[in-house]
Amino acid sequence: MKRILIYAAGFVFVTLSFTSCQKDCKACAQNTYDSGGNLLTAGSETEECGATLLGIEATSDVTVGGITTKWVCR
């Protein structure tokens, strides 16, 4: 009986250790806009969390020749 309880407790511990504790996640994509603000290309969305998300949100927009590329997170 003790063996079953130890296995069950181990299973619960392993199951809980695989869950993510990060709650500050957003879906982000790198999009390109023309000078009028019209969307030219939309990048594929990826889920970003933690330090990576902070880095993306701190990245400034890049404008070259009237074309602006920026990260959009929702």
Description:
This protein is α+β, with helices and mostly antiparallel strands. The chain contains two helices and five strands, in the order αβββαββ. Strands 1, 2, 3, 4 and 5 form a five-stranded antiparallel sheet that branches. The longest helix has 16 residues, at 2-17.
Labels describing this entry:
74 residues, alpha+beta, five-stranded antiparallel β-sheet, 2 helices, 5 strands, rod-shaped
Give the C-alpha Rg. Answer: 21 Å
Order of helices and strands: HEEEHEE
The average pLDDT score comes to: 86
Which ranges are low-confidence, i.e. pLDDT below 50, for 5 or more consecutive residues? none
Which structural class do you get from the secondary structure elements?
Answer: alpha+beta
Give helix % range: 25-40%
The biggest beta sheet is recorded as: 5 strands, antiparallel
List how many beta strands DSSP finds.
Answer: 5
Tell me the distance between the termini: 50 Å
Number of helices: 2
Amount of beta strand:
35-45%
Describe the protein's topology:
Elements: H1 2-17, E1 25-33, E2 39-42, E3 46-49, H2 50-58, E4 62-64, E5 67-73
Antiparallel strand pairs: 1-2, 1-3, 1-5, 4-5
Quick description:
It is built from two helices and five strands; from the N terminus they run αβββαββ.
